[in-house]
Amino acid sequence: MTEQFEPTIVGFTCNWCSYRAADLAGMSRIKYAPNVRLIRLMCSGRVDPQFVFKALAEGADGVLISGCHPGDCHYVEQNYKTMRRFALLKKTLAALGIEDARVKLVWASAAEGNILAEEIDKMVAEVRALGPLNWKGSEQLTVNSEQSAVGGRSSAVKEMSL
Amino acid sequence: MSKPKFAMYWAAACGGCEIAVLNVHEGILDVDANFDVVFWPVAMDAKYKDVEAMPDKSITLTLFNGAIRNDENAHIAQMLRAKSQVLVAFGACACEGGIPGLGNLTTKQAILDTAFSTVSTDNPKELRPQTTFKMPEGAIHIPTMYETVKSLDQVVPVDYYMPGCPPESHQIAAVVGLVIKALKGEAQLPPAGAVIGASQSTVCDECKRARGEKTITAFTRMATFQPREDQCLLEQGILCSGMATRGGCDARCPTANMPCVGCYGPAPDVIDQGARMMSAVASVVDSKDPAEIDKIMEGVADPAGTFYRFSMPSSLMRHART
């Protein structure tokens, strides 16, 4: 029997709606794919595109961004910023050759545990069908291993500020 | 007493950095008065084997400009690292990959096809450069082009970063002046790994244009629009990278009524310049309607090429998947 590919998905949720939706899904004993590693932020507006790139570059097969429905943001309108940022992020990801289904924006209120669970199931199935992203492995190594061991400034700073 | 030794090298570069150094005018005489120039292919004759013969750490200061595009670039970078006490990644290409780094949005194959098999090239036999070719006199070699472009620090450790495309001449003069003082024991060099010859803030901070509330409903481009000279360019719908870009250039481009293109690299404490640009631009678009947002964003013709114009190889993703 061949083993099924299990994607790793990083999920950014907001403190007020989508994280509570995940909580509700758990309390309601809704079964959904265990592939998403949820990270709680105060607001989906906190999701800097750097977070998404870092997740994808360092091994995630997909990224889920989830927040309150438009109009319901605890911080009035930060999720509109998320919406606009996401539009630009999608265009850039497409230029980098990353499939649409790997990065998803889902609105889920604190009462919508079932919706979040459904969306996660859907996303996991889609990313599973796409296969591993394996971003690091996709770079053809053109410099020998001794040279690429030098991380340079970029990697040192990355550890500090993210 | 012999003078301290100076070297400058160009890897995947356009030569603009060298011009910027010569643009310090009579300041170049200070370089000559204080340094013994041992290797500088643009300005003087020297062979790689001359450098190879030098003892390790015998060159005091090396300004290395250009990105790492092929195995010759990497080889010289390693050699100069070994021979130099202070190795400076000089200019945007050495610091972040620069304009050659845009090659990371496509493949080596596609680049070669464009260069050798498109309508502007007369190449009926579809010839491609060979890295080795046998001649009666023996085999000859040309450097092997890498699949992706790398910044200098992705190949060897770097002591300082001096950004800019090219670095501003007054900044170069200041840095050279500081090194000369340090050699005489009159000043201290900044801590290793520092960005030198640049500011600790953004281009916006140096820009004289008036800034107000930003509410963008459409993006426009320089080719079809004459912006006002006193108002923030972004507010007028021009994609200006000033807010995600390190200062130090005295906002030269915005002053000349052109948008900042981001050549001084990510602002302090920013890793991924393009991501910050995306964040900033999205924040000032004035719409809450997804369809309208998509329409406005269509005005950003080439987001990856625009936001990562100089920093693709040092961005978090480094390259596109092709």
Q: Strands, helices and their partners?
A:
The complex is a heterodimer of chains A (162) and B (322).
Chain A: E1 9-14, H1 18-27, E2 36-41, H2 49-57, E3 62-67, H3 78-95, E4 103-107, H4 113-130, H5 135-138, H6 145-148, H7 152-161
Parallel strand pairs in A: 1-2, 1-3, 3-4
Helix pairs in contact in A: 1-4
Chain B: E1 5-10, H1 16-22, H2 27-34, E2 36-39, H3 48-52, E3 59-65, E4 68-70, H4 71-83, E5 84-90, H5 92-96, H6 108-117, E6 132-135, E7 138-141, E8 145-150, E9 160-162, H7 169-183, H8 203-206, H9 252-255, H10 273-283, H11 290-297, H12 303-307
Parallel strand pairs in B: 1-2, 1-3, 3-5, 5-9
Antiparallel strand pairs in B: 4-8, 6-7
Helix pairs in contact in B: 2-7
Structure in a nutshell:
Chain A is an alpha/beta fold. Chain A is 45% helix and 14% strand.
Descriptive account of the structure:
The complex is a heterodimer of chains A (162) and B (322). With 162 residues, chain A is α/β, with parallel strands linked by helices. Chain A has seven helices and four strands. Chain A has a four-stranded parallel β-sheet with strand order 2-1-3-4, sandwiched between helices. In chain A, α1 packs across α4. The longest helix of chain A has 18 residues, at 78-95. Chain B has a five-stranded parallel β-sheet. Chain B is globular, with a radius of gyration of 22 Å. Chain B starts with a strand and ends in a 15-residue tail after the last helix. The model of chain B has no long low-confidence stretch (mean pLDDT 94). Classes of the chains: A alpha/beta (162), B alpha/beta (322). At the A-B interface, α2, α3 and α7 of A face β8, α10, α11 and α12 of B.
